[in-house]
UniProtKB/TrEMBL annotation:
GO terms for cellular component: ATP-binding cassette (ABC) transporter complex; outer membrane-bounded periplasmic space. Transmembrane segments: none annotated. It comes from the Bacteria. It comes from Pseudaquabacterium pictum. This is ABC transporter substrate-binding protein. Signal peptide: none annotated. Keywords: Signal.
Length: 499
């Protein structure tokens, strides 16, 4: 992809932000960094109450920390906990906490802060997206010592250390938890400096961090750029130093040929889907949903929209998951089969639906491709483009027909057991499988039941499952430490530095 001079100038002009100095990479100090992000966090910066993955991309591991940390390789390491052990039955975990740690508001980090955070996450009015998967499974929280927390679970969970390394499980200060959305206060190496709504968020190094000498960056700015051309323009002009989740995949060859940049292709836990509102007629008919699945040519979507940088999927699971089953053969691209299923469901004329698309290019560009595919089988999809905040207040609240979205959270199949989740799926058979897996012992039974869960979701064609995206990370030469993979949605700045 080659940008015209006019478009380059227009895109660069759009990125001019007051307060950032508009300095080029050559002029910026080696302890500062400017990164691009596709989406702005919304509605705030509290990952324990908001569902948007973009929240964690800014604050997780940087401002707010949890008991454990998930690395870009998927390994689980100690963070605010120094160690942990579990009983043989997998229902009791004992965490030894790091001592001498304080929150940025001066309050001590201790077992009581952990108990407060987890009880807040499982409270009846909690909107924590891990409430059902993690916190409702905690039957009791014991704090026998200031540096010891004992979690007793209703059902064994071998993934708990991983789950506690995700953004919804960060530990908050009881003193300032209520204002985390606007003024996050954590134990991490950075603190919030400013948030220019619609433009950028800036973090600065916190001098009170327990190992501040190891933090090489003094100032980091996240700039929100969802337009593909503007992303490329910002990199070429030196207005940003990198973009960990680069959206303009059509420009990869151009950037790889430019000696100023590194381009890395990694893996993610993402599930790119055409989400279907299971509560709306006629989408509540499984035959209609199966018809939609047969209408989607996954390979054409991946090649045309993502430049081939994705793997096809057939259920709500990523190929990196332990126990992943390839179910793409269940609904192969077959327009004739799709037409027959629609006819069987009693739909004889054009089926008119609205396809609501958030800003990322996989959705906006992908929406045009999907609409054309649906048109071939008699489904007219009227495209409605919305901003991210509108998507969260509309489709994510259940107000939609169809939408395209990439679910980045790992192992989030439990959302299908929530009838109030935005796609409105309600299956006693599926719920029974989830319960059975939660209660199963570790090992083969867990893997077998996960395969059954994937098949149940696919058989019911809850959504049309399309792609598991690769991660494309672009950065200036000399910058090291950015994640090449995204097992969780985070940008761990503690390891990032200029050489």
């Amino acid at each position: 992809m080659t940008l015209s001079r006019r478009r380059l100038a227009q895109a660069t002009a759009l990125l001019a932000l007051p307060g950032l100095g508009l300095d080029t990479l050559a002029q910026r100090a080696k302890d500062t960094l400017v990164l691009g992000m596709v989406l702005e966090p919304s509605p705030g910066l509290d990952p324990t109450t908001g569902a948007a993955a973009a929240i964690g991309e800014v604050v997780h591991y940087n401002v707010l920390e949890g008991l454990t940390k998930v690395t870009d390789s998927g390994a689980v390491l100690p963070l605010l906990a120094t160690d942990w052990v579990s009983d043989p039955d997998g229902k009791t975990y004992t965490f030894k906490l790091r001592s001498g740690v304080r929150f940025q508001d001066g309050t001590p980090f201790n077992a009581e802060a952990v108990k407060f955070s987890f009880e807040r996450a499982k409270a009846p009015d909690s909107t924590n997206k891990a409430k059902k998967t993690v916190f409702e499974n905690i039957s009791s929280i014991a704090t026998p010592q200031p540096d010891v927390v004992i979690l007793t679970l209703n059902n064994p969970d071998a993934t708990l250390p991983f789950r506690l390394g995700e953004a919804p499980a960060v530990i908050l200060s009881p003193k300032s938890a209520a204002t985390t959305a606007t003024q996050p206060v954590g134990t991490g190496p950075f603190r919030l400096d400013s948030w220019q709504k619609g433009s950028a968020i800036t973090l600065v190094r916190w001098d009170g961090f327990r190992d501040v000498a190891a933090i090489k960056l003094r100032r980091v700015t996240f700039r929100f750029i969802n337009d593909n051309a503007a992303q490329v323009a910002a990199l070429l002009a030196g207005d940003i130093d990198g973009m960990p989740r680069f959206g303009a995949v059509q420009a990869i060859a151009q950037l790889r040929a430019d000696k100023r940049f590194n381009v890395e292709i990694g893996s993610t836990a993402g599930k790119g889907i055409l989400a279907i509102n299971n509560k709306k007629k006629p989408l509540d008919d499984v035959r209609v949903r199966r018809a939609i699945s047969h209408a989607i040519d996954r390979k054409a979507f991946i090649d045309g929209v993502l430049e081939g940088l994705a793997k096809p999927i057939g259920s709500h699971a990523a190929p990196t998951d332990l126990g992943y089953v390839d179910l793409t053969g269940l609904y192969p691209y077959n327009p004739d089969k799709a037409k027959a299923l629609l006819k069987e469901a009693g739909i004889t004329g054009p089926l008119n639906l609205t396809l609501t698309l958030p800003p990322p290019s996989y959705a906006r560009k992908g929406g045009e491709v999907v609409a054309a595919m649906l048109a071939k089988v008699g489904i007219t999809a009227k495209i409605e483009n919305v901003e991210w905040a509108q998507w969260l207040s509309g489709p994510f609240k259940g107000n939609f027909d169809l939408t395209i979205i990439n679910h980045v959270e790992p192992l989030d199949y439990v959302q299908y057991a929530n009838p109030d989740y935005y796609w409105g799926y309600n299956s006693p058979a599926f719920n029974a499988l989830v319960k059975k897996r939660a209660e199963a012992s570790r090992g083969r039974a867990q893997v077998t039941l996960y395969a059954d869960i994937q098949r149940q979701i696919a058989n019911d064609a809850v959504n049309a499952f399309i792609f598991n995206p690769s991660q494309v990370a672009v950065s200036r030469k000399g910058l090291r430490g950015l994640w090449a993979n995204s097992p969780v949605a985070a940008n761990d700045l503690s390891q990032v530095a200029w050489q």
